[in-house]
Amino acid sequence: MNRQFSLAGLLRLRQAEQKSAESGLAAANSRSASLRVRRAEAREALADSAGRPGDSASLLAIAAARASSQSMLAELEALAASAEADAAEARAEYTEAKRRAVGLEKLEVRHDAEYAASALRAEQGVLDEIASTAWHRKATS
Length: 141
Known about the structure:
Elements: H1 8-48, H2 56-140
Helix pairs in contact: 1-2
């Protein structure tokens, strides 16, 4: 049996793909978390902006500020939804990459076990031959 796993190159490729997918997932999760925090902060800021208008100009300024904040919040909601979709896609890519790598890793473990068993059988055969030869020499002398 060959000592080297014949699919070692493919296994290294699959593991590299898995690492790449893992880093993509981490980046997508980080972006999604960051946008969730920004969205929560914007909602909190919007909720805290309950100014008391003194005249009609102040009332118009407060209305304009709230409208602007609502627009910003809507943009953050859209960005957060996009980031969540990206994270879900990255999670699926990572899962698929891991599945492909795990299958090859199991084949490698099985190959290594079969090689070790083969080597032990060969070694045992040599030891049996040495013992048999020694026994025959002793019996004939």
